[in-house]
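Appendix B. Raw example, untouched.
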Amino acid sequence: MEVLMTLKPKIQPYVIMIVAVAVLFVIAAVVLTAMYPDYGYVILIVGLLVVLLLAMLVMQQFYRRWYTTYEITENDVISRFGVFAPDEDVIPVGEISNIKIDRSFLGIILGFGDIYLDTPSAKTDYEVCMKDIDSAELNKAVELIRSLIQERRPVSMPRKKPEPETK
């Protein structure tokens, strides 16, 4: 089973936003410390706790990038997430009934989107969701999946036109 395409989530926009918030928070903490020197230690401790929380959010994004993989093979679409016992969702290409592309406002600006794959057997929502895929890779992946689906679909026989009745 040859892997035709491997996709990973795009995390740079999230990391940049978290770092920007951390920088703004550090600037606010410095200004507050200058304005209220009596509460300098409290402001410093709260500031460090918030920066630590933001650092943990950055690490969570890297974790998501390192341990999330979406693969498209000739027969299946595979979604994996996890380290020691990764969760794996496999959809045969022939069973895909619907492909939905979702781009949020932020995703349009920063160049990423989501691909949702649906099958008739999906009980709720979509069977596989490929989150935060780079726009260029997203378009290539959708075209690849569509071409694989077209290869799997049986060719329908053309209908014969009814012959006009003669009297």
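End of appendix B.
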